Each structure stands twice: as structure tokens, then as C-alpha cells.
Amino acid sequence: MNNSMIARRMQRVRPSPTATISDRVRELESAGKGVINLGEGELDFATPERIGYAGIEAIIHHQTKYTAVSGTAELKAAIAHKFVRDNGLHFSAQQIIAGNGAKQLIFNALMATVDAGQQVIIPAPYWVSYPDMVTLAEGEPVIVATEEQHGWKLQPAQLAAALTPESRWLILNSPGNPTGAVYRARELAALAEVLVDHPQVLIMSDDIYEPLRYGQTPFATFAEVAPQLADRVLTVNGVSKSHAMTGWRLGYAAGPRWLIAAMQTLQSQSTSNPGSISQAAAVVALTQPQDFFTEWLDKLNQRRQRVLDMVAATDGLSAQIPEGAFYIFANCQQLIGRTTPQGKPLADDKALAEWLLAEAQVAVLHGSAFGTPGYLRIAYAVDDTLLDEACRRLQAACGRLG
Ligand SMILES: Cc1ncc(COP(=O)(O)O)c(C=O)c1O
Question: Any keyword Transferase (predicted)?
């Protein structure tokens, strides 16, 4: 390939580290290594059967043509129903758009609203794609480091200090990737209070992990908590994580009409509508009983405990108990600087993750990929036996560090 032909804007975007690690795992697997991948951001469960059948029926009934760019009327009604049922939020069809995953909607929203030099406040640790999407839109990511001791949540004073006349967005993600942190309504209300005096700022609430919460952890979303700011809030969600449908590529967003219209214009010139088959399946996912969650959450809860036990038993690792999602964000600062049995000192979290992949054949992601060095993200959405083996290998490998 001739590099001189690559557009300058490509200098502002890096390949997603999550995709890179998955490629590396596939490479090792094809070389016959028994790698266990705890780097992947998706549930191992099968898409519930009745949702799958809705997709098959859509094919049989020839629902296989273009649809409206922002989604079929049936899907929009199902999305509106979901927002009323789960969040007490009321949206008209013009305030809703479906896309190829939540990722496309976040991308479209930023592309449609961020001008060169405008700032987007992103609390760290963050989902890997936010900053690159902002820079691709010629905006400036303003990374605000949250603290483990604050449960990885943005504090109102931090928000106040980060705001400038150039601020265009604040991005919130709860339950959070990679920390599993879940904001309470009162915490969102306190952030809303700061934002009242900054009418130039839009708020993106990325709720993609909404139902994946443990114990009695309640859910709150920004638009519900701060109705006075509702005309500045984009609520993003999807069926990828909630319904084990990552491959179906179906996400949705709801917010002010002008913003949804702009996102729709952009989508009309890129991908058009999300797949008609996925839309039909998502109608069922969003409207039919969500009875599978109890079993899923039980399983995930046990796995979460398995990893927390491993972390507690491993010298040099520690972690907060995450309230949601399917990740443990483990502090590995005490392992940095230690020496491998091969005699190599581990310079940082990336070196540690690489060594764990080579030594224990377990893939985890380094915290610096999420803007927070000194941590490892361990995804526990894998089969129990594999997870057990992975935990044993990780603990044993860390024990070999000098
Ligand atoms: C925080 C967060 N938002 C959005 C997405 C994108 O989800 P989708 O599969 O719907 O594009 C992910 C996927 O990893 C995520 O972790």
C-alpha cells in the first residue's frame, strides 16, 4: 500500500486496541496455542431463541429490502416502548434513530455536532473509541481522570473545572466500560446542576450495559434525572450487550429532533438503514419478556466473584467490586517493575498484559488503552470452565514475577 495515498485524517485515528488484541489471539490460536481471551467485550451467551426466530421470519417474509434510514416504524415504536417501560422517558418517532450498533450512533452524533477545536469531555477510564471518534471529527478530547476511590465516577467539581466555552459534549457511560461503575441518580443530578449554566454543552448518556447490573444496583439515566436538560441529552443504547446480539449490529439513540435529524442525514450518506433482519429481531428483543436476564445475571455474578477471588488471592493485584457490565478493572501497579522469570523487568501495564498473553496464554487489556495506566481490564463473559482455568493461569503467572 502506498502510504502517501492515506488521507491526513487517518493520522488522527488508531486501530481499536480491543480489535488488535482479538487479532493477536486469533493469530496465536491458529499457531495451535490454547489462548483464553478475557479481552473481548461481548457475552458468550447465545442470542435468545425467540429473537433469533424473529430474524429468520423476517427473511422468510421477505423483510429484506431497504427500510427508512432511521429504522422501521415498528422498531421505533419498540424503542419508544422500551424507553417508557425502563426509563420513564417519552420520545416521538422523530426523536429516535436506529443504526448499525451504538458505535455508529455515537460516531454520527459527534461527526454531526463537533466543529474543529471544540472540546468533548471524556471521563477516564473511557471506552476506547470515544477519543478517536472525537479527533476524527477534528474535535479535542478533554480527558478527565476519575479516581478509584470515587468509584471511578466523575465528580461535579472536576466537571466544573473541565468546562470551557469550547465544550461541546460531556460523555457519560454507566454501567461503565472498563470499570463497571454505575452512577446513582443523585450523582447524575449533581453533574446536571453544573451543566445548567453551560447551555453550549450536550450530554451523551451511553447506556449500552443498562440491564447488566448486580444485586440491587439501581439504574438511572441522565435524561430521566435531569428533565430540565432533556433538550440537550442524547441517550444511546442497543441490543449488543443486553441481548447477546453484538453481531446483529443494532443500536439506537433518542434525543432532540434537530440532533436526530442531523445524525439521520449523515447516516443516509454512509450506511443507510441498519439491516432489516436485525431490526425485526430487535423489535422482539425490546418488546417481549426479558425473562432470560435472571439466569444470565446469576451466571455473570458467579463469574464476577470468581475473578474477584482470583484478584484478592494474587499478590500485586486489587480491584473495586464493579456493580455492572462484565469487566473487572484490576489495579496492577504493584506488579509494574517486577521481573519475569525470563529476566525482563515489566515497564508498564502494556508490557504486563503482553507478558501474561505469552506466559499464561490469557488475553487481558492494559488500562492505558482506556486512558488509565496501571490497571488491567479482565472481561469475564466467558464459559465457567475457561474462566476458572484463566484465573488459575493468571494467578500462577503473577506468582512467578520476581
Ligand atoms: C461503552 C460502549 N459503548 C458502545 C459500544 C458499542 O456497542 P455496539 O455493539 O452497539 O456498537 C461498546 C462496545 O464495546 C461499549 O463498550
Answer: yes
CATH of the domain at 82: 3.40.640.10
Task: Quote the ligand 1 centre to 128 CA distance (angstroms).
Answer: 10
- One domain, residues 209 and 107: yes
pLDDT-derived band at 1, boundaries 50, 70, 90? low
Residue 150 lies in a domain: yes
For 248, other C-beta atoms within 10 Å of its C-beta total 25
pLDDT digits (tens, 9 = 90+) for 92-145: 999 999 999 999 999 999 999 999 999 999 999 999 999 999 999 999 999 999
Would you place residue 343 in the very low, low, confident or very high pLDDT band (cuts 50, 70, 90)? Answer: very high
The H-or-E segment that residue 363 falls in is strand 362-363
Given a contact cutoff of 8 angstroms between Cβ atoms, the answer to whether 36 and 363 are in contact is: yes
Q: What is the dihedral of CA 64, 70, 71, 75, to 10 degrees?
A: 170
Assess whether 156 and 18 both reside in one domain: no
Structural domain of 369: 3-46+292-399
